[in-house]
Each structure stands twice: as structure tokens, then as C-alpha cells.
């Protein structure tokens, strides 16, 4: 192969080739970009020839043509969206790897309007003076939670960090050992506390923490009792924890001792009335006597990624003035989407049920079965090698939310005549848009709890395209 190295065209020769201008126009790139791709592909081809890892056709191979073809392929891959749309066929509503909550149409529209125009992000229109972005959603959050005041940062981990840094730095914070959870990406509550400057005081045991454990740990250096809601795991058996109301009464006995509860997910809608989980409402936690509570915007709330903090006004005011508040602030599009999401909660149960997250969690199994049957009918109208049937199954909430809760659902269980389940699942992930499924008992399964009606045609097209590749 090495004898062909001298036949490789120089970059300046490729630039003079008519195919250079043609490819530049077809791929909508400039000369510098195309030259860079050609140089890269030329280097790759040279390495393959040296390693004798490529086939050479003809006595005088058309290396230039090969380079233009491979450069075109790489340009098209480069131009594809890195953050690509996905059809979620897993049935996991708050799928962390797939972006968690889908926003409502109203939230999307408001975010787009805000992105496309100037806005009063930090400007008071009536006074013609500088304003604060905290004002945009505080009233709505107060209304939804019943708190005295509220604010927003970029996620709940940031909310925890801000609260501990601003209110407990270099002082002690008491936490039950059973609540020192690890959240996504190996981030731990204990590590966040350490970074904040707060001094962690562990009490109780992994499975049992009593009121006297907290009482014995309180001293002059104690700034806060922190309760971490175990929203991403469930401990059963010989366990005991101190209820929020009891801890609130304990902190009331000690002047300047704060009580903060990290809810993690945080629900403004009562899923319990549908028999789904036992997540407390944020309003209920506030009414129990906590000083501060924090929770996520993109989990059970059904909005954009954000960390929401609600509680006593004097404490919220301190947090707003802290230097970290600027570091952790959210942008205008997040505020716009969050504003519309919170307005849905203010507009009654019907509007709340229109939020995709809430809608998907409370969907009835019978409605899902009808949708699954509709897909099967569509697929069977086209010649293919699929064997498909409807099966009863369960969906998960996901996102570290409501651990152990499984919701009855129906899935389409699919087998291909000549593809394994893994092979078919891979081809579906390569569809446009990508289709993510789950595999059970060597069958590709689509849970329609997380499939929107508007996605049905694309889902069908993905399966038919995967079939045509065989």
C-alpha cells in the first residue's frame, strides 16, 4: 500500500479541483472549512495506507474522489444537531438522559418570544428604572407554595449550595445519616455541603434517626437542621425518620436555628389523589413549619431546569443579596418557560393536566392501550417482517422521583424476523428522529405513555426505515 502514498493529491490540488466548489456549495461551507475537512481526511487516508488498512481499487486509484466523498460524509455528520430530538418510547416520564420534562406549548411559545425580542428582564416599565429578575416569577411561586417569598436559581443542587453557603457557612448543619443521598452523576449531598463551607454533623444511623439524635446534636455552633427528602430512593423495613412537623417544633425552641428541607423533586400537583406515589406537596411542607424549602423545576413541576427556593421572606432576601445568587441565576428563556408553567398551576386543575409531565404521569392505562393498538394497526398496513403484540406492563416516573412507584401501562412488544432486539433497538436509535425503546425478554418494547399523538407518524416511519435496511 505504501507505494500509493506518492499518488495522494496535495491539498492545493484538491482546492483547484472542480469538485471543491461543487461540494462547498452543496454543503454550504466556506473554503477554509472545506479545506480543513479535506486535510483531515487526507491525513486519515495516509495513515490507513501506511498501516495497510484500506482497500485500493484500480491501478490508478481516484484518491481525490475518495477524499471528496469522505469529506462530504464528515461535513454532514458535523452539521447534524449535537442536541438532537428523540422520541421517548421507554415510558419513563422524567428520563434524565432524555432531558426530563417536556414543556407545555404555552411555555415553549413564551420562551421563543422572549428569546426573539428584548424584554423587561431587569427593567421596571412603570418606573423606567432597573429592576430585578427575581420579581418575574416570585409572585407566582408564592401563590403556588403559600410561602412568604421565593426565588429561582439554575438547579436544585445550586439551591442547596446557595442556602448552605449563605446561611450556614463555617457553622454546623445537622443531617440524618439516612438522608446523605447521592444524586445524579455521583454528586453527593455531603460533598455539596463540604464545598459550601458548612460543617456536616451526621446523626442517627442509616436506617433509624430519632428526635433525640437531633436534640443531642444541637449546640451554639449549630446553624441549621437540614432534612433531605429521599425522593431518589426508598428504604423499607426496620426504619424510622423524624417527621417535618416534629423537626419544625424542635427548631422553634432554639433561637436562630433554621430548618431547611431539600425536597428534591417537589410537587405542586397532588399525584396522591390518583393513587400515584406519596410525594408531599410543597405547600404542605411550608405549612408544616419549615423556614426554607427547595425543589426542582424540571421534575414533577413539569417546567424547565431550575432550582426553586421558597420560605421566610427575611431568609429569601438574604439569599437574593448573596454574591452566589448572581453566579447561579437563570436566564430569560428559563424564566419565561417557568412563568408559563406556574401560570398553569394558578389556572386550575384542567390547565395543570395539560402540562406534559403531569398529563403523562396520570394517563390511564386504557388510553395508552388504545394508542398502542392504533400504532399496531398502522404498522400492519405496511408490508414488513415485524411480529407485534400488546402487553400489560408498568411505567416509571424517573428522574430520581417517586422511587419504587410503577404505573400500569401497555406496551407494544416487537420482534423482527431477522434482527435481534439489540440490533433493532440500535437501528431505531439511528432513525430521524431517534427512537429510544426498552428491551424485555428479547423484544423491543415501546411504552406509549411517553409517546405524543403528534409523534405517531414519525414512530411508524422509524420502524419502516429500520425494516428497509435489512
UniProtKB/TrEMBL annotation:
The modification N6-(pyridoxal phosphate)lysine is found at residue 299. The keyword Translocase does not apply. Its cofactor is pyridoxal 5'-phosphate. Keywords: Cytoplasm, Protein biosynthesis, Pyridoxal phosphate, Selenium, Transferase. It is an enzyme of class 2 (transferase). It is found in: Cytoplasm. Pfam families: SelA. One of its GO terms (molecular function) is L-seryl-tRNA(Sec) selenium transferase activity. It catalyses: L-seryl-tRNA(Sec) + selenophosphate + H(+) = L-selenocysteinyl-tRNA(Sec) + phosphate. Transmembrane segments: none annotated. Its EC number is 2.9.1.1. It comes from the Bacteria. Belongs to the SelA family. Converts seryl-tRNA(Sec) to selenocysteinyl-tRNA(Sec) required for selenoprotein biosynthesis. This is L-seryl-tRNA(Sec) selenium transferase. It comes from Planomicrobium stackebrandtii. The gene is selA.
Amino acid at each position: 500500500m505504501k507505494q500509493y502514498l506518492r499518488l495522494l493529491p496535495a491539498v492545493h490540488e484538491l482546492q483547484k479541483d472542480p469538485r471543491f466548489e461543487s461540494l462547498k456549495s452543496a454543503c454550504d461551507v466556506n473554503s477554509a472549512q472545506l479545506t480543513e475537512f479535506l486535510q483531515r481526511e487526507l491525513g486519515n487516508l495516509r495513515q490507513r495506507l501506511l498501516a495497510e488498512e484500506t482497500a485500493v481499487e484500480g491501478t490508478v486509484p481516484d484518491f481525490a474522489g475518495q477524499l471528496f466523498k469522505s469529506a462530504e460524509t464528515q461535513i454532514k455528520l458535523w452539521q447534524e444537531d449535537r442536541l438532537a430530538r428523540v422520541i421517548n418510547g421507554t415510558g419513563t416520564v422524567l428520563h434524565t438522559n432524555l432531558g426530563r420534562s417536556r414543556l407545555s406549548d404555552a411555555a415553549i411559545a413564551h420562551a421563543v418570544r422572549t428569546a426573539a425580542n428584548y424584554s423587561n428582564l431587569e427593567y421596571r416599565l412603570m418606573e423606567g428604572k432597573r429592576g430585578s429578575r427575581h420579581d418575574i416569577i416570585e409572585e407566582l411561586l408564592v401563590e403556588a407554595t403559600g410561602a412568604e417569598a421565593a426565588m429561582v436559581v439554575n438547579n436544585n443542587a445550586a439551591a442547596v449550595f446557595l442556602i448552605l453557603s449563605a446561611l450556614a457557612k463555617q457553622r454546623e448543619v445537622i443531617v440524618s445519616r439516612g438522608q446523605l443521598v447521592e444524586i445524579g452523576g455521583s454528586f453527593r449531598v455531603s460533598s455539596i455541603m463540604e464545598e459550601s463551607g458548612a460543617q456536616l454533623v451526621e446523626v442517627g444511623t442509616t436506617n433509624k434517626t430519632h428526635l433525640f439524635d437531633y436534640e443531642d446534636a444541637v449546640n451554639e455552633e449549630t446553624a441549621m437542621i437540614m432534612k433531605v427528602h429521599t425522593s431518589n430512593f426508598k428504604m423499607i423495613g426496620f426504619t424510622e425518620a423524624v417527621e417535618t412537623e416534629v423537626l419544625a417544633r424542635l427548631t422553634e425552641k432554639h433561637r436562630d436555628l433554621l430548618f431547611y428541607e431539600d425536597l428534591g423533586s417537589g410537587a405542586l400537583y397532588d399525584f396522591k389523589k390518583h393513587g400515584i406515589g406519596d410525594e408531599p406537596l410543597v405547600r404542605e411542607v411550608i405549612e408544616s413549619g419549615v423556614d426554607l424549602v427547595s425543589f426542582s423545576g424540571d421534575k414533577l413541576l413539569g417546567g424547565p431546569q431550575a432550582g426553586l427556593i421558597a420560605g421566610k421572606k427575611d431568609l429569601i432576601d438574604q439569599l437574593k443579596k448573596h454574591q452566589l445568587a448572581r453566579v447561579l441565576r437563570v436566564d430569560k428563556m428559563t424564566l419565561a418557560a417557568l412563568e408559563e408553567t406556574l401560570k398553569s398551576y394558578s389556572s386550575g386543575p384542567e390547565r395543570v393536566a395539560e402540562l406534559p409531565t403531569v398529563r403523562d404521569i396520570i394517563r390511564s392505562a386504557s388510553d395508552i392501550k388504545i394508542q398502542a393498538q392504533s400504532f399496531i394497526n398502522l404498522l400492519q398496513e405496511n408490508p414488513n417482517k415485524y411480529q407485534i403484540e400488546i402487553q400489560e406492563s408498568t411505567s416509571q416516573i424517573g428522574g430520581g422521583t417517586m422511587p419504587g412507584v410503577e404505573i400500569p401501562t401497555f406496551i407494544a412488544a416487537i420482534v423482527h424476523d431477522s434482527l435481534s432486539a439489540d440490533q433493532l433497538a440500535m437501528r431505531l436509535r439511528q432513525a430521524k428522529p431517534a427512537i429510544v425503546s426498552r428491551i424485555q425478554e428479547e423484544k423491543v418494547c415501546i411504552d406509549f405513555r411517553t409517546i405524543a399523538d403528534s409523534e405517531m407518524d414519525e414512530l411508524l416511519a422509524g420502524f419502516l426505515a429500520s425494516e428497509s435496511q435489512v
